Amino acid sequence: MLSQIAPSDDLAFFRPHQFLARENERPEAYYDILEGWACRHRLLSDGRRQITALYLPGDLCDPIWPLSGVCHDAVVALTNVRAVRRPLGDMQPLDRSRGAGLRLAESIERQSGWLVSLGRKTAVERLAHLLLELFERMRRAGLAYGQQCALPLTQTDIADATGLTAVHVNRTLQAMRAKGVLEFHSKWLRIPDLGALRDLAALGPHDPV
Amino acid sequence: MLSQIAPSDDLAFFRPHQFLARENERPEAYYDILEGWACRHRLLSDGRRQITALYLPGDLCDPIWPLSGVCHDAVVALTNVRAVRRPLGDMQPLDRSRGAGLRLAESIERQSGWLVSLGRKTAVERLAHLLLELFERMRRAGLAYGQQCALPLTQTDIADATGLTAVHVNRTLQAMRAKGVLEFHSKWLRIPDLGALRDLAALGPHDPV
DNA sequence: GCTACTTTGAAACATATGTGAATCCAGTGT
DNA sequence: ACACTGGATTCACATATGTTTCAAAGTAGC
Known about the structure:
Two copies of one chain form a homodimer. Chain A is α+β, with helices and mostly antiparallel strands.
C-alpha cells in the first residue's frame, strides 16, 4: 500500500499532542502513518473542539490544502506516531499527484457519513457508527484480531469526534456494554456481533463501512 | 470561471426534486451550474435527511466518486436548475482533471466547517454560519446586491443542512430577526451588519467564509 | 512504592432542542 | 372567486443531551 521511500523522505516520530500540521500555517509535509493514531481537528475560541478526521496506521495523512495555501485544521498525534515524512517542498496547491483526487473523494465520502451522524443521529447511533468505522478500517489495515482491535482513543476524543460530551459518551457506552453489543476497556475494542452493531448505527444497506 | 463548452457537452435543465445523480448509481456526468440551486444529501431509512453540500450558480457540481464507482449521496435540484452537462463517458475514478484535487480539497475544507457546526455549535451559531457562508458565496459569484441576495431554500432545507428541525429553525430565525441581525422573507436574505452576524457564527479570525 | 496526573464512572440537575398538532398565509391553478 | 398546496408560524409538552461536581480507578514518572 505504501509507496517507496524517496531519498528526501524521512522517518518522523511524534508524541501525543504533537502537531503534524498547525492551523493557519502552510503545511510542510504529508505523512504515511506507519504506527499510531492522529486526528485533524478545529477548536473554537471558547475551547469547544471538533475532530474532523482520524488517521490510523496505513493511512496517508494528506494536508488539506486549499488555494490560500494554509491549513485551517490542525493535525495532531493522539498516540505515539511513527510515520514517513514526505516534504512538500515548493509544491503548489494545484500540483497533486495522480491518485490524490481519488483519495480526496474518499475523504469526502467519509466526511459525508460523519455529517449525517452529527446532524441526524442519536448518541447510540453515532457511537455505533464511529466504532464500526474504526474497527472496519483497522481490519482492512490488517490490525484486527478476530472481533477485536486496538482503539487508543479516550472517551474525550470519542466525544470530540461524535459531537457529544465526554459524560454522555460514558453513559451511552455503559448502556451499550450492558446490552452486550460491544466491549471496550483499556484501549481495546471487541465487537461480539458486527451485524447487531451495524443495525444500531442506522446505516443503510449500501452505506460504506 | 467556466470552461468552454465542448461538442459532447450539452445544456441540461432540472426541476425542483429532480436528480442530477442518484444514490448507489454510477454518475454519468457532472455539471457546471449556470442558474439555480442544488444539494447533495443522504436519507436514513426512517426519513431523516442530512444535506451534505449545497451547489450555487457558478459552482462545479463534482460527482463524489470513490473507487466503488457509485455515489453514496444523491444530488438533487432545489430550484429550477440550468447547467452545462459534462458526460463522464468511460472515465475511471482515477482519471481526474488537473485542478480536481484543488476543488476537492476545498470541498473538504468547507465540509470540515460544517462538521464543526453540526458537532459543536448552537442553533444560532449554525444558522449564522450557514447564512453567512451562502451570502459570501453568492457575493463571490456576483449575485449579491449590496447586503442582500437570493436564498431559495425553505426552512426545511435549512434545517436539513444544519441538523436542526424546521420548527427550531423557525423560532431561531425569528429571534435573530427580532435582534435585527438579519432579514429573510420570501427567499430573499438581507444582512444589515456582516460583522455582527459573523460574531454570532462563532468563527475564528482566520476561518474561511 | 509513592506522588501526580489522566481517565473513567456516577449522580443530581438544567436546558436546548425535538415532537406533534393546529392554524395561518401566499401563491397557483381552475 | 374558490379550493389546493406547500410553506411558515405558534403552542404545549417531552426528552435527549449538556453541566457541574466529585469520587474511584488507572497510569506514568521518580
